[in-house]
Amino acid sequence: MSKFKGGEWLLFGAVWLACTLLVTAQWGVSEYRRLQDGFELAAHQAYAGVARRLDQNESVLSAIDALLLSREPFDAAAVGAFSREMLPRYQQLYAIQFLRNVSADNRVVFLREMEQRFGETFYIRDFDVVGRRSWQPAPVRAQSLVVSMIEPDLPAASPVYGYDVLGDAYFAPELRRAISGGQKVSSRPFELYDGGGRAYLLMQPLFRDSESPGRQRLAGMAVLVVFCDRLLQLPVDASLSNNLDLALLAKEGGHELLYERLHRVAEHDWWPVVTRLEAKLPLNSEAQPFVLGVAQDVRVSDLALLPLLLRELLLTLLLAAAGLIYSQRMALRRQRSLADEELFLQSERASVTLNAIHDGVVILRQDRNIEMANPMALRLVEMPAEEVLGQPCHEVFRLLGELASEFAEDPIGECFRTGLPVELQERMQLTTARGKVHFVEGGVAPLLSRDGVLIGVVCALRDMGPLRQRTAEALEASETRVKEHLEKLSHVARLHTMGEMASGIAHELNQPLTAISNYCQAAMQMLEGVDDAPPQVHSALKLAVAQAGRAGEIIKRLRALVSKRAIETRLIDINQVVGNCMFLAEYDLRERGIEVVQLLSGYSIPVMADSIQLEQVVLNLLSNAMDALKDEPPMKRHVIIHTRREGRKGILEVRDTGRGITPDLLEVLFHPFFSTKPHGMGLGLSICQTIVEQYGGLISAENIPASGACFRIELPLALQAERQLS
Fold this sequence. Notes:
It is an enzyme of class 2 (transferase). Residues 70-233 form the CHASE domain. InterPro entries: CHASE_dom, CHASE_sf, HATPase_C_sf, HATPase_dom, His_kinase_dom, HisK_dim/P_dom, HisK_dim/P_sf, PAS. The chain is an alpha+beta fold. It is 44% helix and 24% strand. The chain contains 16 helices and 26 strands. The strands form six sheets. Strands 13, 14, 15, 16, 17, 18 and 19 form a seven-stranded antiparallel β-sheet that branches. Strands 1, 4, 5, 6, 7 and 8 form a six-stranded antiparallel β-sheet that branches. A five-stranded mixed β-sheet has the order 21-23-24-26-25.
């Protein structure tokens, strides 16, 4: 220990202090959490006590109200007896009062009654509880609420008799709210008349039946004077902290402080305050809308850190001598090992990165000889490493611009000259020593020493030949796929068109052929009763009936032939069908200046159908929408495609912002050979209906007010097939 240097002793002291502070901090956090848990428990206990007293206040007031309602007229003796029984039970009740409703009509009668009661001249007076606080005669008012009963009836309270509480602007708003609502209402706190502290009024209006049927009159107001300090007094409980600060706050208006009760000063209060714990607990009383504020100062002495510090100091001193030497040696060994490991990892990462990337990287020394070339660079110059490393750069490859019309400096030479990064020009050619040319891109960057001296350059080269070839192949494959897809769509469209035409022609021709056959048979029946009828006429009519039947049979066979198309259904996603159609129709939509809004479902919409046939339906609807928007101004050309699930159905809607479809056309819109276009065949929507219905679906059209037409396709969801595939 005597061989320790000053720096080592300083390190020992720092380690000891750090460990002590860490343990102390952890202990302090633990103690703080303990104190916080205790504070939350004490706060809820205090909350329960205050909430119970608020319930007691309302219960007492309800009992007084029930007592007064059962007695007519006002029975002061019964109320006084009840009040004298209740006041000793509930410490928070300062007094119980009754405010008599005095109007201008019964003012004289009221004054006479009170003069007989007190044996002297009685006055109705004002006090101004938050102003001048002096008694003044009250003017005659249309309505007054006058104190006519006080319990306990002490001599010090005699000046309060005759106090017009409704005439005091401080109490008037709450009194009027109680009268209009008929419910219990509390006032804001105020200083008591005799200087005994702060209190508030809890008031309940008393109504009596009036002479007018169905109406009630206000008899007065039962009032509890609640002492704020006793309301917040903590119960005597050994488990409850006695250093809690309690406060009554207004529930509305930003939690205004109404009254605060601070704990008594204890012996340990001279310790510094570490933090202050606070909680605001809303009280569940509509009549007394208060928030209970609970706070507690956490002092250093509360954390009980002194025994911990002494124990940690002793333990640290015992272990310091052996631990310091060992930790220093291990720290040096770890630092050396970490430095070696970091150096190895950096070298390994650089090597793996250079070998894995698809860019050729060549490092040149200051004499322009090649110091390093990664595998991609060796493949680019088509030479082995032993023929490249240490050789001058210009003997391995050269960088030249394609079709250069004037002298251009070599990018490598420019980087050596300027010491700045150089980006290769577009279509730069790399010529190898064996005469092969590659198109490359990339750049040349300077390699600087720690002092900022140029010691070489790094060339990053990417061969663009394979990329161009892959791009061309991908483009050719994409064009082939699109061409095959369009051919399938065209083939299916021709088959459907031929089928719809055959069905329509058969339907239209069968009716006149049937009529011809019926007319001929009727003519033959009429000729049977004519004796001089020429036999040639009967034979001709018979031949006409036979030929009409033969023509009908030919049409029936033709219709059956074109309708026998094989339907190959598979599990497809309606969202994918919409994506395919948008790819195919993108050019036409852009040329016509139409904006498409795709509101596709976030979930897949699986159906059993043929993708090509459904694409034909969607493309047909898109084509109709584009035709409907051709006469609209450019800013109003919009098509909305909406897909979603509704129960067990998949929904696809195609809407446009055109002029819509007239009501008379909606009924015949899907009929074969009906078209609103001058040169249309009238088979498009009929084909769409046939395709959708063959998969158990439904297609319909409607007008959206002020938004054009909407075509709606409903198909049954293939949820079971989707679950099997997943």
